[in-house]
Design brief:
Length: 248
């Protein structure tokens, strides 16, 4: 496993080729977005790998290993970025370790600049309870921005059906915040599609999924949901916050 604090993220991209200009990337989005909108997830990842090479990475929150499995099958050795916030459930860390041990991917464990203890010393204990937007910015958004500095495109496991006022993810889109191509190969998948892929390929799933946590984030900001509740309703419950800022 490569572990990187965010400022060192560029170092492990030593073999990366030169990136494209923003104009070129936007042009790619314009053409490929329409062409690939209805394509199978495997074809979307294949296109991204063929187009961006080592300047394409996927990200995973380790709720399951579907996208990691799919990408590792299409492009063995592909970079999988995990944001190690310091607040993950043990089950999520275990899923990350199992992904690294069993799948042909290059797991990159990205840590924030400050440890939880250092953040507590700077901002006071339990920042997540007082200012979750700042906590997410420090432990998720900024680390991701730094970690993806050496890439032109990134993929997420975002699915449109998980909506809770959530962003409608194009299959190939432009991420204005990161100024990169954002690829969502699973955007059109339903929960049944995920279940089918998991069953067909014996894919790792975070055990918390079977314990009332259909959407898994940091432990202070994730609660169980009742059957039939929106899966995202267990995230930052009672705060009005619904996203960490990565998919804004
Ligand atoms: S989800 Fe909660 S604990 Fe995790 S970074 Fe955001 S506010 Fe902090």
């Amino acid at each position: 496993m490569t572990t990187a604090t965010t400022t060192a993220a560029r170092a492990f991209r030593g073999t990366a080729t030169e990136g494209r200009s923003e104009t070129e990337l936007r042009e790619l989005v314009r053409h490929a977005g329409a062409e690939l909108e209805l394509a199978p997830a495997e074809d979307i990842v294949e296109w991204a790998v063929a187009t961006f090479g080592v300047r394409f990475a996927i990200t995973s929150s380790m709720g399951d290993a579907v996208l990691s499995h799919l990408a590792g099958t299409v492009a063995p050795g592909i970079d999988v970025v995990f944001l190690d916030t310091g607040y993950h459930f043990a089950e999520t860390v275990g899923t990350r370790d199992a992904v690294e041990a069993t799948l042909p991917v290059n797991l990159i464990n990205v840590r924030p600049v400050q440890s939880v203890a250092e953040q507590d010393a700077t901002y006071g204990n339990d920042l997540f309870a007082r200012d979750p937007d700042l906590c997410c910015a420090l432990r998720k958004v900024e680390p991701l921005q730094d970690a993806l500095a050496g890439y032109d495109a990134w993929a997420t496991g975002l699915r449109r059906r998980e909506t809770h006022g959530r962003v409608i993810a194009p299959v190939i889109g432009w991420d204005d915040k990161l100024r990169k191509v954002k690829v969502s190969p699973l955007a059109r998948w339903t929960g049944e599609d995920v279940d089918r892929y998991v069953a067909e390929h014996g894919v790792l799933v975070n055990p918390l999924q079977y314990d009332g946590y259909p959407s898994i984030g940091c432990w202070p900001c994730t609660r169980r949901v009742a059957p039939g509740e929106n899966p995202r309703s267990g995230r930052w419950a009672g705060t009005g916050k619904t996203e960490c800022g990565i998919h804004a």
